[in-house]
Task: structure prediction
Amino acid sequence: MAPIDFRTKINWHRRFRSPQGEKSEHEILRIFESDRGRIINSPAIRRLQQKTQVFPLERNAAVRTRLTHSMEVQQVGRYIAKEILSRLKEQRLLETYGLDELTGPFESIVEMACLMHDIGNPPFGHFGEAAINDWFKQRLFPSDAISQPLSDDRCVVQDLRLREGEEGLNDLRRKIRQDLCHFEGNAQGIRLVHSLMRMNLTWAQVGCILKYTRPAWWTGETPATHSYLMKKPGYYLSEEAYIERLRKELSLTPNGRFPLTWIMEAADDISYCVADLEDAVEKRIFSVEELYQHLYDAWGSHEKGSLFSQVVENAWDKSRSNSLSRSTEDQFFMYLRVNTLNKLVPYAAARFIDNLPMIFSGEFNHALLEDDSSFSQLLELYKNVAVRHVFSHPDVEQLELQGYRVISGLLEIYRPLLQLSVDEFSELVEKERMRRLPIESRLYQKLSTRHRLAYVEAISKIERHAVQWPVMEYYYRCRLIQDYISGMTDLYAWDEYRKLMAVE
Result:
């Protein structure tokens, strides 16, 4: 196994206009400060303030949005990073691992990856993802057999595009269908950073948000050695060349992950588990007393000195004894959050260091907080109580179903753009309005300039006379619609759906 040297991973170069020559520690830190500025000032981060974490269309400002959640993850990620660096310093390993002059970039990369980890999520979270995938599966895959003729009312595709036909293109069609029917927030995050926002971040910063290493078009068996790392799509066909270059720049194995991504993932796991329960109490899904009982019952055996007693029971007892100055709810969650962090952050840091050879190589096929320890059991406790008592609550389920319907409805509204022939759509893109296509012209005008430009740039790289031109043009047109709708906030998607469906 190669020696651990983080100087080969914390790559401060960029794809475009990258600074040349050797850099001092101060200059490298300035490069990553530039990344911070680009990320914090990006529209993708601002939109997170109107995408809710658990409760779609939530107007209560005390309930978390994706932005406030991401800020909490950022803080936990920073805490874990500092804990790791502190322990390595105590063990006099910073210089051995090439980190003695890279502690600042190490922390910054983790923090900004935490802030960005949800930027690709569509409106209504996982139900938005499901709506996009179901809609495209119902239209790009006929229910009988892919090779059967497709009628217009059963399938969006026409002419030469994704229908089976000429030999030599069928593999490409299958690959594209698979890719378009596996929309995933993490993969969309990579697409946003590179293709849509053109943020030109350092290779290390982008590598840290590549959470899963499986391409969206993957159809084979997932290798057992990478079953966790490849459990979800991590990037699309549209970013294949970019990810290939990223792997080369960061010395990543074909299915391996960037080392600092494990820290970002652990920070997210720690943050959302407690936050979802706190939001449920804020929404009056259950009282804080009922929550404590749910946690107590779900833990099982209650031995003296257990992690449950040190974290949950300790928070409960302290909130009862100090309830005069602040509400019991506030007290309980303050202590629960502090106790949880004080136990799980050191454990995550220890797991990172203990497994550093495998993590550095990108081959560690687990989450940091996924093992048979009581620390992992505590996280599972929070998750299981949330699944059983929060996500299954009728109010939450109704909102999720509404979100699913909104996204499905918006895709149906924009369907006419996908039914145009290649020549018709190309002419519409060039002229922007066409008298003989009144509906399509108005729909095209509603698409954002950023997304339209990304489409134009993508197809400009394809030879017009190439045999794959109609198929690839259609692929990027479908991406254009997915980009636009997935980029909406919850409330904007809701309002657009109501306006376009003439529901007031």
Q: What stands out?
A: The radius of gyration is 24 Å. The chain is about 60% helix and 0% strand.
